[in-house]
Specification:
- There is one protein chain.
- The chain is built from no helices and 26 strands.
- With 307 residues, it is mainly beta.
- The protein has a single domain, classed as 6 Propeller (Neuraminidase), CATH 2.120.10.
- The strands form seven sheets. A four-stranded antiparallel sheet has the order 3-26-25-24, with no helix packed on it.
- Strand 6 and strand 7 form a beta hairpin.
- The chain is globular.
- The relative contact order is 0.16.
- The mean pLDDT is 94.
């Protein structure tokens, strides 16, 4: 299927058959060539590599495109709360200096691993749960403002901003209890910081919608999904959306619980199914807009090539 974007002379089309680019189909393994229940995913254009939250191996793998194995850049492969350990990490991103930020979900903290370091330092939250402004509870996804260094974290019904060297965070979205009103979030999941609009795109998982929350605002604007509070289906519906990302044309890509990735063109609330990975909680785009997705229970990352 050809999908015309809002930018002239640009069409978007992907191969519907994914190919394995990291891990081995159906095999949970611990060596460098394997993954085990991969979760979140990000792409670093500077190193041409995927950063994979290798959830059940308690590590983050850097996987250069075209390589047959990954390199561990955070965690030592054993579960724990020591500086050199992680506990079921769910997402990782990298900055321009190669430093890695990790959602260390079961330790209720965000760990910063300096480039090449063998251990991390806590960027946000101590290693015990809570809902105060100094604590995190099951932080799932992260995004970063490269200009200010601010890190944004989804944790329950809120998104929290942490600045470098902060001892506490600031709630910038939600925080008014779980719910579906425009001042609330209901299990925030995927997260994307859009610098031009100074806004956060948030996967509001249990509300089955994607919202845009301008920083400094007290309410969100609906971007995708239906305001029914119920699991929905294409073209307008979503069901427990998880990972999200945007391309340079402001088109929105959403992985949801229906086993699909939907593309919502900028300004449209009608989506098109462009890929159907299995239990995907991480998606990413490379510079050519090839699409990558984790398949948690198949223990791999697949590529849907742009045509």
């Amino acid at each position: 299927m050809l999908i015309a974007s809002l930018r002239p002379n640009v069409t978007l089309r992907w191969n519907l058959t994914g190919i394995t680019v990291a891990g081995t189909m159906g095999v949970c393994g611990q060596t460098a060539a394997y993954l085990c229940s991969p979760h979140g995913l990000s792409f670093d254009p500077l190193s041409n590599a995927l950063y994979i939250a290798d959830n059940s191996n308690h590590r983050i793998q850097k996987w250069v495109l075209g390589a047959t194995y990954g390199t561990t850049v955070a965690g030592n492969g054993t579960r724990g709360s020591s500086p050199n350990q992680l506990s079921y990490p769910t997402h990782a991103i990298v900055d321009a200096d190669g430093n890695v930020y990790v959602s260390d979900v079961m330790n209720h903290r965000i760990q910063l691993w300096p480039n090449g370091a063998s251990s991390g330092v806590t960027f946000a939250g101590p290693d015990f749960p809570g809902s105060s402004d100094t604590l995190l509870l099951n932080p799932l996804y992260i995004t970063r403002d490269s200009n200010s260094g601010a890190l944004y974290v989804t944790a329950g019904d809120r998104v929290i901003r942490w600045l470098p060297n902060d001892t506490k965070g600031t709630i910038v979205a939600g925080g008014n209890g779980p719910g579906t009103t425009p001042t609330q979030l209901y299990s925030a999941s995927g997260l994307y910081f859009d610098s031009p609009s100074n806004s956060l795109y948030i996967g509001d998982s249990y509300a089955h919608i994607i919202v845009r929350w301008p920083l400094g605002a007290s309410t969100w604007t609906l971007v995708a999904g239906a305001l029914t509070g119920m699991c929905g289906y294409p073209p307008a519906g979503l069901c427990m959306p998880s990972a999200i990302t945007l391309d340079p044309m402001d088109n929105l890509y959403v992985a949801d619980g229906n086993g699909r990735i939907q593309l919502f063109l900028a300004g449209s609330n009608s989506g098109t199914v462009i890929a159907m990975p299995s239990f995907s909680y991480g998606i990413a785009l490379d510079n050519e807009l090839n699409l990558y997705a984790t398949e948690q229970y198949k223990h791999r990352v697949v590529k849907f090539a742009r045509l």
